[in-house]
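Table S7 (text form). Paired inputs.
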Amino acid sequence: MAYPFDESGRADSHGRLLGRRKVEAAAAVEALLAKAGRVSDVGAADVAAACSRCGVDSARTLRKEFKALYGRYLDFCFEDRQLSTEESRDLEHLQQILQLGDADVSSVQDDVAISVYGSAVAEVLADLRIDAQEESFLKRLREELNLPQSKAERILEDHARDARSRAIHAATVADVTFIQRREPAGEFTGRSSAGLQAAVDNALGKAALAIPQLHWFEVTQLSGYVEDGAASQWYVVVQAGIRQENSK
């Protein structure tokens, strides 16, 4: 994520007079923050002056807009999934110069915490499991975000369910391109005591002799013998074929 504030201020002059002034004032304050080396370089007097120039007397009038600015900066700080001491100080300073109350900041923090934690959980669950290191990371992040454990558990459950659904969908949806580009040419049997792949390779060896342009195969039958509770002989029937002439 790039630095969250834009020097252009994203101003939109449409709407009623007060609405236009509020947008312009919020844009002016954002431009101040964007041009500053650090958030702490902007003071409350700077914010008040920017608002005054746009015809807005009080920063309280811009509560909604300033909450959005605070939220963007908080999200930016958590890009690396941790909050440094310097970032914490900057956030406190930003709250002060934007005249945001504790309740305002708390509501923004809740929204950002849910978003950041949810994104982290989704990444961790990419392989459908959470190892000890990942569990420790999520615990640290939850504490850093001040996210209640009950909410964190609910987010984890929701994302785990979604991840399982995506995995099942991916595993059961047929590869249409593969199916459309194959033309059956025959069935061949293979057997081996060395394992399934060896049995398939045995069948494909026969298929390659009969079909020089062999391009694909599908195991249509699988069976074998058991000895001492383990597979001792693998037997397969393989359908094999060539690429369709009208496919690339």
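Next pair, protein 2 of 2.
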Amino acid sequence: MSAPRRVAVVTGAAASIGQAYALRLAAEGVDVVVADVADGAETVGRVRRQGGRALAVRCDVSSAEDVRALATAAVEGFGPVDILVHNAAIYPSTPFAEMSFDEWRRVMSVNLDSCFHLFHELLPGMRRRGWGRVICIASNTFHSGVGGMTHYVASKGGVIGLVRGLASEVGIDGVTVNAIAPSLVRSQGTWTGLPAERAKFEKAAQMQAIKRTEVPADLVGAVSFLASDDAGFITGQTLVVDGGWVRA
């Protein structure tokens, strides 16, 4: 008997790292819902050209209304959602002394409150069906304590805590909840090629055991594994995929 066809929602998948996650899952036969505030047509087109199925839904993950509409569109398009890869996030760089509360709240809303909205909409169905995979993209900045973006670090620390707590509640229903913590990844959203930026990436590489810049291809295998049946006994974990920056 063939394995059931799965449906995944990948947030922040219109381009860059999220797009790489969507393409990998689609290549493995998963139907992919591309959720992003940006136009997801490019990702959908690439999935379809490689023989997969995808649809794009505009969604601000910090909006409960948008997330509710996303869940409805996913079910109407492909059926119940089995896999959630929550990748969407913002990462402004502002010293804490100069940070406004509005900026703090915006980062928390997009990076952490979004988990609340997505989990409330998508987890009940996974629990009823007895199978589900939730994968949140955290950050190794939580472990390394990078300065200049304390709101981002705090939000990703919150994601790691939420993953641990939620895993304890839904494991009995066949649902796993895990996080992946990358390093500084060279992508469309982080790379401009300016000298200062090149220096930042070079410095990051030197902090790692594997002394090269991390790219989206370094992360897709971890997402693929955690979304699979092979990872069915792994939950509440944060897999640090950062070339060995965090080794303690």
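The first helix runs from residue 16 to 27.
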